[in-house]
Write a structure and sequence with these properties.
With 765 residues, the chain is of the alpha/beta class. The chain is built from 25 helices and 19 strands. The longest helix is centred in the N-terminal third of the chain and has 38 residues, at 207-244. The two termini are 68 Å apart.
């Protein structure tokens, strides 16, 4: 694509050179005429009026009658020359000024207008030369006729290269035929004009007789202008009618368009086609369809008004098509579930109500199913919500395909529950077979990333024995409820089925109220001297009804229930109390590390406000271990918050670096007070070379000058030695002591009996 600078210096085309040549020749003609013109040879008043009026009148009717402008302009010059035989150079100058002004006013772009005016000036000079050099003996009509003929031939010949250069040599036949057609029409108009003007020179050159001869021409121009106004009024009426009804009916946009065009544009055929036809007037509707308007051969050509009307109506049609498409999309979205593409439950219920309100033919009963995916909550916990949504979308695709194949109509009831109905032909056994086929389709494996997941479903059944006429909505909803109850019975009969009676929020709130949130403590050791440096507070939960709840499950449930801060706050209160007692037992402060999700670390956290107040009051050193259940950015606001906490003796560190829970990109986010390395890094042994990843990760931490590192999972003396050799400062693991209650931790600190890791090979571990 050319820039404006490149375009400014682009080489002129052959067409540009030809037009420039025409302008140069015309300028030469005008210079020659000016050299021989004399103010004393000015033409008469009537000749001046004719020279000015004829081109303008021709331009008014030129869009309707091709070639009339050139004829009227030539007639004006020929008649003026016949009247003022001594003023030919002056005539040419005056006539050329009017021609240039008319072309500049009516033709765009201006470059094409000047070239067209130059063509007329060259032809006009030949007209004058012919009139004064040739005498057929019938003066002045003979001279006018010969001059006009040469004038029209010259215009056609000079315009021929323009057409060829514009349309190409391949269309030379069409260009020549077009020029010959103009020449023939021009000759006809010239004959009529010369016939009307002939008698004005037969007797006397009087103004009244000349005006009488000119009146038919002016009357013709007035008629054409009247026709133009009628056409414009018809187009305005058509556009007004179309605009009032916009947007057009969504199901009849094209029919409305064809009807409007056929009623207001003279045509032999109006159609919607894949491509335009030769000689037709057309407008695009979209990338595949066109509005095409045709006329019979020999009829007048289409005008600009026709083209504007067609373009306007086609534009309204395009807008109506877009509106109709958007309306269909919105209706589809309102009636379907966006994730699965199945019908929404309310629309599905309306369809079921219609189906059960038909005839009472026992052979066409309505069978209904209620589906619930088994163990879908575990799928959510294991793979995450995005992958679970992909599984639901796949189930939706299968149900829609099955519906198209054997006549089921399905909807998403909510979550991982679906409803469906079909016209059940035959007895209950046939419907049961259909339900078994449905279960087999759902049980086919589903690929999620690199995993293959099999989802089974509990399917409740209900059969409308007698549909009958006028079945009420309540009856239909009772049918759905019956299928749902049947589904729950079948689910309970499955091996390992568990009926959840309470929501996550109810369970967590009950645990907080009943004091069922507990804390376990695991010592943190300085590897250089095996001294207890601190302890990690670990969340524990146990209920009478559910038993021991794994910490990840409890954290996830508390987060979903928006109670994670409350659970963490309970752990914080218990742990700081134990840390105060540990300081008394040891005679020195013991650092307490608390686990905190990154999502909890923000300026508006009331949990952090309570932590600051408690640390200020007790003086217990606290270090927050930030973990990520989902990747979250480390922002400037979080960095400023960490700096502010440091002024209160609260450090901030990274938890489980090297596992899927923490991103390596966080290493350089700030100068962390502690970096805890995941136990999996220690267990990795590449071809007998030991934990290579851990070794390189320690090198990266050394680059960032993060020396306060802690390696968890140490269980043997060999693992402890590896950690020392790599420069790890602190250790944690069952080799020093398993997680224990607060009383056990205080007793261990009081005895100073810290267990040492036993000697064992890493390979055996």
């Amino acid at each position: 694509m050319q820039t404006w600078r490149e375009h400014a210096v682009a080489q002129p085309t052959t067409l540009d050179r030809y037009r420039l040549l025409l302008v140069i020749v015309a300028v030469g003609v005008l210079i020659g005429a000016g050299a021989h013109a004399s103010p004393d040879d000015l033409p008469g008043v009537f000749s001046l009026v004719l020279i000015v009026a004829a081109p303008v009148a021709g331009r008014l009717v030129a869009p309707r009658v091709p070639g009339v402008y050139s004829v009227l302009s030539g007639v004006a010059l020929a008649d003026a020359a016949a009247r003022d035989a001594t003023a030919d150079p002056t005539l040419l100058l005056l006539w050329s000024m009017v021609v240039i002004a008319a072309h500049a006013l009516f033709l765009r772009p201006i470059r094409a207008g000047l070239a067209s005016a130059a063509t007329a000036i060259i032809a006009g000079s030949l007209l004058l030369i012919t009139e004064f050099r040739i005498d057929l003996g019938v003066r002045p009509v003979g001279q006018m006729l010969i001059g006009l003929a040469l004038y029209l031939v010259t215009l056609s010949v000079l315009a021929l290269p323009v057409g060829l250069l514009t349309r190409g040599w391949a269309d030379r036949g069409a260009v020549v035929r077009r020029n010959l057609g103009w020449l023939a029409r021009g000759a006809t108009y010239a004959g009529i004009a010369v016939g009307l003007l002939a008698f004005t020179h037969a007797e006397a050159h009087t103004v009244p007789t000349t005006v009488a001869a000119l009146l038919p021409i002016l009357a013709g121009a007035a008629c054409w202008q009247t026709l133009r106004m009628v056409t414009l009024r018809r187009a305005s009426r058509a556009l007004t009618e179309a605009a009032v009804t916009t947007p057009w009916p969504s199901g009849a946009v094209l029919e409305t368009l064809v009807g409007l065009v056929g009623a207001h544009v003279r045509s032999s055929r109006v159609a919607i086609l894949d491509a335009p036809t030769d000689g037709s007037l057309w407008a695009p509707l979209d990338h595949e369809r066109y509005l095409v308007v045709e006329r019979l051969a020999g009829d007048f050509g289409f005008t600009r008004s026709d083209a504007h009307l067609i373009a306007g109506l086609a534009s309204m049609a395009r807008g109506s098509l877009v509106y109709a498409d958007r309306e269909r999309q919105l209706r589809h979205q309102a009636l379907t579930d966006p994730l699965t593409g199945l019908w929404s439950y309310q629309h599905w219920l309306e369809m079921l109500l219609t189906a059960t309100s038909g005839g009472a033919d026992e052979a066409h009963q309505v069978g209904l199913v209620f589906l619930d995916c088994d163990g879908f909550k575990q799928i959510n916990n294991r793979y995450g919500h995005l992958e679970a949504d992909l599984i639901l979308a796949t189930i939706g695709d299968r149900l829609r395909a099955l519906g198209a194949e054997i006549g089921w109509c399905f909807a998403r009831f909510g979550g991982d529950e679906f409803t469906g109905w079909m016209r059940a032909e035959g007895d209950a056994a046939a419907f049961e077979k259909r339900c078994e086929e449905l279960a087999d389709v759902l049980a086919e494996p589903i690929t999620v990333g690199q995993h293959s997941v099999t989802v089974t479903a509990s399917i409740g059944r209900a059969l409308a024995r007698r549909p009958g006429a006028g079945v009420a909505r309540d009856t239909v909803e009772d049918l759905v409820e019956s299928a749902e109850i049947d589904m729950r019975r079948r689910k309970l009969r499955k091996p390992g089925a568990i009926l959840t009676q309470h929501s996550d929020r109810d369970v967590v709130q009950r645990m907080l109220a009943a004091g069922e949130i507990a804390v376990a403590y695991q010592p943190l050791i300085t590897l250089a001297d095996r001294e207890v440096w601190g302890c990690e507070a670990l969340l524990r939960g146990h209920t009478a009804s559910l038993g021991l709840i794994p910490p990840p499950v409890l954290v996830e449930s508390a987060s979903q229930a928006r109670l994670l801060d409350a659970v963490t706050g309970e752990v914080m209160q218990q742990a700081i109390t134990v840390a105060e007692q540990a300081r008394t037992v040891c005679g020195r402060p013991i650092t307490l590390t608390l686990n905190l999700e990154v999502e909890q670390f923000h300026d508006a956290s009331e949990l952090l406000d309570r932590l600051v107040a408690r640390v200020d009051a007790t003086g217990v050193p606290v270090l927050l271990e930030l973990a990520e259940r989902e990747p979250m950015p480390w922002t400037r606001e979080r960095d400023r918050l960490a700096d502010e906490l440091a002024t209160h003796g609260i450090g901030v560190g990274l938890d489980d670096l090297g596992s899927g829970e923490s991103r390596l990109t966080l290493i350089g986010a700030r100068h962390w007070d502690l970096v805890k390395l995941d136990r999996d890094l220690l267990l990795e042994n590449h071809r007998g070379q030991g934990p290579i990843v851990l070794r390189h990760l320690m090198g990266i931490l050394d680059v960032y000058q993060l020396g306060n590192t802690l390696l968890e999972g140490i269980e043997t003396a060999e693992q402890e030695q590896i950690a020392r050799d790599l420069g790890v400062r602190y250790g944690q693991g069952n080799g020093y002591g398993a997680a224990m209650g607060g009383a056990d931790l205080l007793a261990l600190l009081g005895r100073g009996a810290l267990r040492r890791p036993a000697a064992a090979s890493m390979r055996s571990k």
